[in-house]
User: Fold this.
Amino acid sequence: MALEKTLVLLKPGTVQRALVGEVINRFERKGLRIAGLKMMQLTDAILSEHYAHLADKPFFQRVKDSMMACPVVALCLEGVDAIEVVRTLAGPTNGRKAPAGTIRGDYSMSFQENIVHASDGPETARAEVARFFRPEEIYDWTPNNRLSTYANDEF
Ligand code: ADP
Assistant:
């Protein structure tokens, strides 16, 4: 159990389909704290770094092009075990297979156009938050309802 920060990107398809508010609402109502939030136009350079693990895949360039189609919304979310919690809310990569109730399961019909990116582990979360946010863009405000969100030994 650890208080963690994780990186979420609302992909261009989410912006185009006007689902930004709805998807952010899913994270807020779960109890995650918004530590950072901004819109940004991604570049081939930042995406080549971000998706380096896909460099040898045939769809590498197509995925990068899709991520540059319009600005994305970047979020840094914080909570106890936030990395795993956010991955669970997002659901499996392929939107057609993702269970109903997950974000991808509820809003996506596609393997590629799957609404959100979410960090997949502590090391990637640290690297990804630093990749998309400058330190002064991350705000460490204290939610005044913490004891309604967690027991006092949970955070
Ligand atoms: P995730 O985003 O679930 O962590 P990956 O890191 O494996 O998944 O892939 C990054 C992104 O690349 C996915 O979110 C999806 O948009 C795209 N992608 C991955 N695998 C495929 C695939 N087989 N076909 C099309 N797009 C894919």
